[in-house]
Amino acid sequence: MKQDFTHVKNIYIICGKTDMRKGIDGLATLIQDTFELDPYSDAIFLFSGWSKDRYKCLYFDGDGFAMLYKRLDQGKLQWPRNEKEVRKLTQQELRWLLEGLSIQQPKAISTAKKSVF
Fold first, then answer.
1. Where does the pLDDT of residue 100 fall: very low under 50, low under 70, confident under 90, or very high at 90 and above?
2. β-strand 43-48 against 10-14: which pairing, if any?
3. Dihedral sign, CA of 81, 82, 85, 90?
């Protein structure tokens, strides 16, 4: 299964530690009951456990749930650890996270304000 997630409307990261023994039903229930979000919406939900070298991704594609589980061979993710928090990410922040960077990167170049002459 190769899926293009660049057009998914919302990307959510579940901060803190999630019990990685949970399957699709357990994660969908967590999304719905704890964070009051719709697991059937056009959204990706990301989870990580105690060790920051693995994560799960849950996505409903219209006719069923897909769950990706990835364990990194080397390195750790910069996973936010604020328990009971969910954050909405941009595509850029998702790329940073999955590359091992913090999702809170300083801006290299600030945008200029237009002035009227």
1. confident
2. parallel
3. negative
Beta carbons of 72 and 39 less than 8 angstroms apart: no
Q: Give 75's contacts (C-beta < 8 A, 6+ positions apart).
A: 53, 100
Give dist(CA 58, CA 65) in Å, integer: 7
Amino acid at 49: G
Task: Record the pTM.
Answer: 0.82
Residue in 18, 59, 19, 16 with CA at minimum distance from that of residue 41: 59
Considering only the C-alpha atoms of the chain, give the largest distance between any 2 of them, rounded to a whole number of Å.
Answer: 61
* Cα distances (angstroms) measured from residue 96 to each of 3, 78, 93, 100: 19, 9, 5, 6
